[in-house]
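Predict structure. Chain length: 219.
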Amino acid sequence: MNIAQIKIQYDRLERHYSAALKEKDPISFLDLSHTLRIWVDMKSFVDDLTRDKKITLELGNPVTPSVIKEIFKGSRYTFLLLASGVQSPGVETRALRITKRALSSEEIKRIAAAGPPTARSTQLSFSEWLGSGVYGVPSSDEKHPRLELSRLILIKRIANILGASHPAGTEEAEATENKFDVYITDLHNVHIANGYPATYYQLLEIAKDILVGTKCLFE
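Prediction complete.
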């Protein structure tokens, strides 16, 4: 795969990202999801191109304030990080947190004072960045009470189980991957700003970050 072919996929992602932001309907998000799935498949080619050009991609990872980690230590909670933010009419979505316990008034004040998650510049390769966790969920495994789902898993499973890359119900997946489907389905059933599934907002942020972070490859 050469740089011209990667550039076509970049332009394709940019087009579907813009359409999804504008339309915010199931069709536009299915198209965006499938396009992101292509980027997962070509991650090694992006890594190779980055090494050949001797550049570092401008990719950021979310940073959770230490006070947040302290407050929720030992609790069962779901946390979706949208550190660079996703714009919607009248609101910017930065994070989604679902807590399985009541928070005290003092904890609520401390969480508000900590502010939303922020994105920190990294030296990660494209493959490493895709493999970084952005969606934390409580698990039923006592040895591993929390799971961190990566961007890669989110993209692949959203594309597969929601019908973007295969007709829904006909896809096949390795056991190591389809065990995450219940968490993807739960996320898809959570509606946030303007009533759209939370999965859509995660796809929008990943797409935006790829477009910003890999633009240097073509300059």
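Summary: The chain is about 50% helix and 20% strand.
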